[in-house]
Amino acid sequence: MAKYAHPEVLVSTDWVDQHKQDSSVRIVESDEDLLLYQQGHVPGAVKIDWQNDLQDQLVRDYIDKDRFAELCASKGISNDTTVVFYGDKNNWWATYALWVFKLYGHEKCLIMNGGRKRWELDGRAWDRGAEPQYPRANYVAKEPDLSIRAFRDEVFKHQKQGKPLVDVRSPGEYTGELLHMPDYPQEGALRGGHIPGAANVPWSRAVNDDGTFKSAKELEALYVKDCGLSRRTPVVAYCRIGERSSHTWFVLKYLLGFPKVKNYDGSWTEWGNLVGMPIAKGVDPRPAGQGTSKSTDQAKTAADSTSAANAS
Fold first, then answer.
1. At CB < 8 A and 24+ separation, what contacts does 118-122 make?
2. ∠300-228-174 over CA atoms, to 5°?
3. Could you give the CA distance from residue 138 to residue 227 in angstroms, rounded to a whole number?
4. Which of 72, 109, 227, 239 is the catalytic position?
5. Less CB within 10 Å around the terminal CB: N or C of the chain?
6. pLDDT the model gives residue 251
7. Closest Cα partner for 91 from 311, 215, 252, 244?
8. DSSP assignment letter at 62
9. pTM summary value
10. For residue 24, with 0-12 CB atoms within 10 Å meaning exposed, 13-18 middle and 19 or more buried, which class applies?
């Protein structure tokens, strides 16, 4: 049976339960629903708010390396701490936080497979107390690792060269019918659609009903066989603001072993608001006049999948 390329990046709820008091491990919860942590969190876990802690509050960008170092130090995280991320929404915000940690060079980053959902299903106890305060640590952040982050001009060049792009949003967002996920405010971009040439593989197709990641064999079929991605070619993933695409980035890089995959965190809120940028609508990922492909059939399947749309 096929195995993940880097199985060591995933840990079970049992592993986390056994290491929740380990001083060399820091458990981090990162959620979309900012109230979940106070309603109950894994004992010993600290909270990192993707919006207030990781985002610059003036410029649309991440905090710089000095503020990142301060954040880690304040949470009791040193450079050699093993940081285990988990959260709601099948860990999409957990992988987003992990991606930012990787951006600043933190080496020991793990994901609790299944996130909050799996912890709850396993019947494990929640701590409903205040966030624990750990002794301040020493932390030195590295310069941003741009090998995992794509910017607008790079994505435009990537697209013009016909290299693979994966749009991980819901089918409705991809076709241009929606500007955001179903049941969310339809805002954020002036134009709907997708980057021409991008294939649509909703991020949620990579997880099981219990929130855990699908098997290596299933993921290989989804991204390589159906979508046509190759490990020999650089891949760029994007969504609306870079959070869902960080989940797909994690799957491609760590579970399937793609050596060159980047997250375009500017994503559709940048691309869909830019003057003069190429936009495609509908289910065909290829520019008009280039016919259909295997990835087109995959996109049509995704568009017809109600469960995929709802999960996204």
1. 118/13, 118/210, 118/211, 118/212, 119/13, 119/16, 119/42, 119/86, 121/210, 121/211, 122/13, 122/14
2. 35
3. 44
4. 239
5. N
6. 98
7. 244
8. B
9. 0.90
10. exposed
Q: How many residues comprise the chain? A: 312
| 239 carries an active-site annotation | yes
CA 155 centroid distance within chain: 18
3-state helix, strand, coil in the chain (%, to 5): 35, 15, 50
Nearest to 171 by CA among 133, 138, 141, 201: 201
Extract the tokens encoding 231.
Answer: 């490990």
The rounded distance, in Å, linking the Cα atoms of 42 and 91 is: 14
C-alpha to C-alpha distance for 281 and 302, rounded to whole angstroms = 15
Q: What is the CATH number of domain 7-121?
A: 3.40.250.10
Tens-place pLDDT, residues 296-307: 344 444 433 333
For residue 112, which phi and psi values (nearest 5 degrees)? -80, 110
Would you give the DSSP letter of residue 244?
H
CATH fit for domain 152-311, picks 2.60.320.10, 3.30.310.50, 3.40.250.10, 3.30.70.3270: 3.40.250.10
Give dist(CA 209, CA 118) in Å, integer.
10
> In the chain, which ranges are E strands?
10-11, 25-29, 46-47, 82-86, 109-112, 165-167, 199-200, 235-238, 261-264
Least confident interval from 28-42, 194-208, 261-275, 287-301: 287-301
- pLDDT digit string (tens) for 7-26? 999 999 999 999 999 999 99
**Residue 307 CB coordination number (10 Å):** 11
Domains of the chain: which residue ranges?
Answer: 7-121, 152-311
Q: What is the pLDDT of residues 73-130, one digit of tens each?
A: 999 999 999 999 999 999 999 999 999 999 999 999 999 999 999 999 999 999 999 9
